[in-house]
Amino acid sequence: MYKIILASASPRRKEIMERMGIEYEVLVSDVEEVVEETEPSKMVSALALLKTEAVLSKYRQMENRADNFIIIGADTMVFYNGQALGKPKDEADAFRMLSQLSGNWHEVITGVSIIINTSNNIEKISFAVETKVAMQELTKQQIKDYIATGEPMDKAGSYAIQGQFGIFIREIVGDYYNVVGFPIAKIYEVLLKKGIDIKNIKK
Predict the structure, then answer these.
(1) CB 155, CB 98: distance < 8 Å
(2) pTM for the model
(3) What pLDDT was estimated at residue 203?
(4) 197 labelled catalytic
(5) 3-state SS track over the chain
(6) Which terminus of the chain is less hemmed in, N or C, by CB atoms within 10 Å?
């Protein structure tokens, strides 16, 4: 039996775990998210690994920790023409990003890091999942009205596909939950191949 630790404070990731019936605990890393990698998939994978390794160090120092545990961390970024679009700094930055994405295809890439720890072994797994997203052509007023909702201000690429912005998404190719920020199907598949069914792990 394993304890599942989610290395994220993201409400979206917690909601996905709960929706899938997976029992978990949250332990957030306070690590500075800076990596040297510039290639998109390697960048987000490295950022996810930073988070899980920081949580591993923090968890090992806690009392009453489990011997067998799994730490799952993720980092999601939006890429347009190879340029990374993170969370907007302000409303002007959100307007800039959404204007770029308007009427175009872009990529949402989530890097995932999984650490499987037992009493006598530790294994680290990293991978990235990409989903292509096509956005409708937006007017300046539509962008301004959306920004006024406040929804884009803590979202990579300045939008939330699961929120009010969903009406502007024309098409996606790939995993919907990856766009939300947590490719749970791939995570489940990878762990299942290791003989671990995280749906059947109880606290």
Answers:
(1) no
(2) 0.92
(3) 58
(4) no
(5) CCEEEECCCCHHHHHHHHHCCCCCEECCCCCCCCCCCCCHHHHHHHHHHHHHHHHHHHHHCCCCCCCCEEEEEEEEEEEECCEEECCCCCHHHHHHHHHHHCCCEEEEEEEEEEEEEECCEEEEEEEEEEEEEEECCCCHHHHHHHHHCCHHHHCHHHCCCCCHHHHHEEEEECCHHHHHCCCHHHHHHHHHHCCCCHHHCCC
(6) C
**Residues linked to residue 173 through DSSP beta bridges, in sequence order:** 132
Please identify which residue in the block is written with the tokens 């770029």. Answer: 100
**107-150 pLDDT, tens per residue?**
999 999 999 999 889 999 999 999 999 999 999 999 999 999 99
Q: For the chain, what's the residue count?
A: 203
Burial 15-31 (b: 16+ CB within 10 A, else e): ebbeeeebebeebebeb
User: Of the residues 30, 67, 75, 197, which is catalytic?
Assistant: 75
Q: Which residues pair with 112 in a beta bridge?
A: 74, 127
Specify the CATH number of the domain 3-200: 3.90.950.10
Q: Are 88 and 152 in contact (CB under 8 A)?
A: yes
